[in-house]
Amino acid sequence: MGLGLGNILASTQDGITPVIDPLDLNPYLYFAADTNVSTSGGAVSTWYSKWYGGSAPSNGRGEYLTQGTANLQPAHDTDGFVTFDVVTDEKDKLALSAAVGQAGILIVATSNGIFAYEVDADSVDEITGLGWETGYYQALNLYAYVLLPTTVSDSEIAGVIKYFEEELGATRNPTGSLQDYWRGRTDLVTPKFDALDFSGVTTFDSCWRECSSLEEFPGTLDLSSGTNFYMCWSSCSSLTQFPGTLDLSSGANFAYCWKSCSSLEEFPSELDLSSGTDFGSCWRSCSSLTEFPGELDLSSGINFNNCWRECSSLSQFPGDLDLSSGTNFSTCWYNCTSLTEFPSEQDLSSGTNFQSCWSWCTSLSQFPALDLSSGASFYYCWNGCSSLEDFPANFFDYWSPGTAATNCFVNAWDNCSSLTATSVENILNSIATSGVDAPASGPDITIDYDDGTGPPDISSAVTTLKACSPAWTITLNGVAQ
């Protein structure tokens, strides 16, 4: 359906984008809160489409919105919006008179953003303030809900957004927190955010979490005010790439941010993550990543707990990635089963917690002489490294943790069935050289090794370790020494 001359010439605040009435774009569904609501200024039991009582566009469907349960009914305001409240166990929502498949461009005009997405869903039966109720409920005012054909252009989408802002009074640009806004929405395919300004948003906590159909994300958004990206794109399992042009420079919390983005094949080196302090589980289970960029600035990072855990395709790790401020590396490279070597240049000297750090890295055959001298816990650290043969001498000579943590070396080298007798000597001689006393609880040093490489010469080291206070105990291949 063509645009009328009035729409083409209509001016907007930017002087460029024309205002476009969505009716001119032949919508499938269109609900506007300024008309066809059951009770003006009261509880909404039915809400009919914009064309109810008149001539529908050729694509127009006959379904309407309804809610027969009083405490689930949103409230209409005579200023032209419907308010969805979120109260424990009483979350406002409207049912479609018949479930519909939604494949097209969905635009929802709310009090905190006018959002457009390409969507694809087989059966949508209820909606809330942001659309399909499979997501997390938000307390918002909804001004309009329209589903357009996928043939509409980005400029036409921008025109509809301007129409909802100028004619219906919706708030175009979101601000503040977008926590959980689209979490769990399995219908979202591609955001259409070019007409929006995100610079006023500070929190993106779980914003697109578990959007498993999201195939791409726009690199043009201004996310420069965002400080909290906790779980932001977690479990977006259809994303194959991520834009390096996003401004994440104010972000401090990136914990779980890209966790389980299992189709992500590479990660952009251009992203500015220099303000990030928490990277716990950040890229955990990104099982398609084969390499990681050393150019990323992670120099402010303190927490790397579970950071690259189960990145099972990661065959190498950059030595020039700055992790020097990190203190917590618990389970950091756990189950990176394709990692064949670890860089000797990597600076982990501030690390205190290495619990399960390289556990089940089954392709590692040797371990470099890293500076882990501040480490207090190595519980399960190399457990399950079944290909590990060589562990360097003098590794713990300058070990100075202050006080060793409970269970410091318990199960540290368990299931290391390829470890040589010489490596066992290197480990025990070096711990003995450090002179560090055992923890009061869990004093055992546990090592499994290939006894076919001969008996290790450890008598002097064992004597020294047992003379510590508290004393260390040593278990080799399950046998106390």
Describe what is shown at a glance.
Helix content is 8%, strand content 17%.
Per-chain topology:
Layout: H1 5-9, E1 29-32, E2 46-47, E3 65-66, E4 75-77, E5 81-84, E6 86-87, E7 90-91, E8 94-110, E9 113-128, E10 131-132, E11 140-148, H2 154-166, E12 175-177, E13 188-191, E14 200-203, H3 421-434, E15 444-447, H4 459-466, E16 473-476, E17 479-480
Parallel strand pairs: 12-14, 15-16
Antiparallel strand pairs: 1-11, 2-3, 3-8, 4-5, 5-11, 6-7, 8-9, 8-11, 9-10, 9-13, 16-17
Characterization of the model:
The chain has 481 residues and is mostly beta strands. It has a domain at 1-175. The chain is built from 4 helices and 17 strands. It has helices spanning 5-9, 154-166, 421-434, 459-466, and strands spanning 29-32, 46-47, 65-66, 75-77, 81-84, 86-87, 90-91, 94-110, 113-128, 131-132, 140-148, 175-177, 188-191, 200-203, 444-447, 473-476, 479-480. Strands 1, 2, 3, 4, 5, 8, 9, 10, 11 and 13 form a 10-stranded antiparallel beta sheet that branches. Strands 15-16-17 form a 3-stranded mixed beta sheet, with helices on one face. A two-stranded antiparallel sheet has the order 6-7. Strand 6 and strand 7 form a beta hairpin. Helix 3 runs parallel beside helix 4 (459-466). It is elongated.
